[in-house]
Amino acid sequence: MSADVIAYGINTGFGKLAQTRVDVDKLSALQQNLVRSHAAGVGAPLESGIVRLVLCLKIISLAQGYSGVRPELVHRLIVMLANDMMPVVPAKGSVGASGDLAPLAHMALTLIGEGQVHFRGAVVPTSQALKAIELEPLKLEAKEGLALLNGTQVSTALALDAVLAAERNLANAILIGAISVDAALGSYVPFDERIHQIRPHPGQQKVAAIFRNLLNDSEINRSHALCDRVQDPYSLRCQPQVLGACLDQLWHASEVFLREAISVSDNPLIIPDTGEILSGGNFHAEPVALAADNVALAIAEIGSLSERRIAMLIDSGISELPPFLVEDAGLNSGFMVAHVTAASLASENKSLAHPASVDSLPTSANQEDHVSMATFAARRLAEMNENSQSILAVEYLAAVQGIEFRRPLKSTRSIEGAVEILRQEVPHLSTDRVFAPDIQKAARLLAGGKPAKSVLPLLSDLSAQDG
């Protein structure tokens, strides 16, 4: 590049200091200083699995050739992955424009031999880990520090991880919701294909089809075919509509996050064919922020609907089951406070679901006057998913307990399989005991995916047909 050309971040300062020229002999120092000054994150470190994904996404972006970095730098990131050398990256400090500056700066520190890494089972100084694999720190050249820091890779990694967990929660919610239908003597009519054909939302139709697969040939259902109940509560009857809408949001968000994963979110960009330097705004993570906000709403609704079904199951006036799902109620409290726990978590998720993307604050002396807050939008999803998983664990326990109160009648093959999986870990609640371990065991089962292993693949297959 000619010394007469002014290019942001290559031979100028950053942010509000973009008008400050930097001498040619200081361009490398400019990049080193950028990385050090921007490594200002706080809070607990990101999990190593998330950092690994961040590294992969950064490699994808840089390798496309629009960032003006040397192949040596990209290769060093690959070497870090190959040696499982994961930077220690504080989780907090990014506003999602200009990219994920602070967390990516902590990642970039390791390339210059500074900061800390997870390496061979311990957190060690980067210099020690580099010495162990016989590498020297890199000296960053013009533009390279900025290319490492600009980008939406942290937000995107968090979002990708969260949407996968949300899909697993949704699969569990469908299975457990089906168990609750039989436990509460619910009708199968709301899942009739004819109802959903005339409201062509793909998610609703998909969820209804899965319910039809799960709910077939049940002795429990046949036993109340001639009952006088006209309609079930919404938490049973409207599951395809509610969970289907959640599925639509997860599908859309997944598409957004995957597009972002293969994007170049750097600035400025260097066009390989012409060498032109273009300043733009691809670092702005608004697509990730908006999609993550929608995922948050879906996660909250999954948990909210589950909590309502728990409340229904423990209410003997609605479910026609023993009060609080326990024999000798009064002496025993059964699921009384397990439901309170679920209600607490559902309420937490409602607060956490507040849209992050509408909460922009200007930074860098108003040069960066609109930001996405994508990093928090994505990061809070992990806590929300954990909350919803725990709510679903309580419902799993409650619904299976309800099924067992319908004995000797049997439910469907799919539901009886889910009952057996739970009972291999958690016995029937015949009298009060400490409840927390039961919830934890049920949650671990749901996290592992075994109960809903036949449901989850269907959520990502738009072409999967009934049966």
TrEMBL record:
- Functional pathway: Amino-acid degradation; L-histidine degradation into L-glutamate; N-formimidoyl-L-glutamate from L-histidine: step 1/3
Key words of the record: Histidine metabolism, Lyase
**Top EC category:** lyase
The protein's name is histidine ammonia-lyase
**Keyword Lyase recorded:** yes
This entry's Enzyme Commission designation comes to 4.3.1.3
InterPro entries hit by this protein: Aromatic_Lyase, Fumarase/histidase_N, HutH, L-Aspartase-like, Phe/His_NH3-lyase_AS
What this protein catalyses is: L-histidine = trans-urocanate + NH4(+)
Task: Identify one Pfam family in the record.
Answer: Lyase_aromatic
Q: Which GO terms describe its biological process?
A: L-histidine catabolic process to glutamate and formamide; L-histidine catabolic process to glutamate and formate
Which Gene Ontology terms of cellular component type are present? cytoplasm
Per its record, what are the GO molecular function terms?
histidine ammonia-lyase activity
